[in-house]
Amino acid sequence: MKIDIVSIFPSYFDVLELSLLGKAAKNKLVDVSVHDLRDATTDVHKSVDDSPFGGGAGMVMSPEPWGTMLDGLLQEDSWLIVPSPAGQLFTQGLATELSGASHLVFACGRYEGIDQRVIDHYSTTHRVLEVSLGDYVLNGGEVAVLAMIEATVRLLPGFMGNPDSLVEESHEKGLLEYPSYTKPRSWRGLEVPEVLLSGNHEAIRAWREEQSQERTQRVRPDLVED
Ligand code: JDK
Fold it and tell me: 145 CB under 6 A from ligand 1?
């Protein structure tokens, strides 16, 4: 998978070289390039924003540098992902979809966001997704892109070399995960649940299922269909 990221803060993505992604890059599973939007400006001040038509506080990102940069990056098979507080919610299902793409281009806005015509223009030729990380407002798209890349790349076949580790994940089944324990069996007076020490695999499976159901009902009742 090829990933291109466009941002006015390219150094935000330095952490991708460490973290989980360094391993994926070394194993040639993913090839990430980061681009500074200001390289696509034409004026001496390298300006990327202007005041909003219709009035209001703050600034909006101008379409011209985005058009120049994205024309140079997008190929026929590229998906353009634009973080936005007004986008569709990023879910495990969407991460799974993104993991099937061959080329992802992430456009990180700042200020009050990007001129809508950039999204509308590329929507006529490419798969374009406006995506929200959650119902809160960030200062720009960078943090959302880091989260989306991490959730997507770990799903690529061959990542961490253990395909079995991904099939069980709770969010695919629409439930929260069950609690996990390791040694020691007793810690600060708290015991590991007896059933996990029993060796009874059917009892363990049933207990974990019940813990998932109970936790989901309590913490995320919106995920439970009654
Ligand atoms: C991308 C810029 C900051 C965007 C409010 C302005 C008129 C009101 C600040 N899940 C999630 N949360 N936040 C983002 C995200 C924020 C971004 C950008 C993603 C680019 N910002 C920003 C919007 C507003 N809005 C226009 C209506 C305030 C993703």
Answer: no
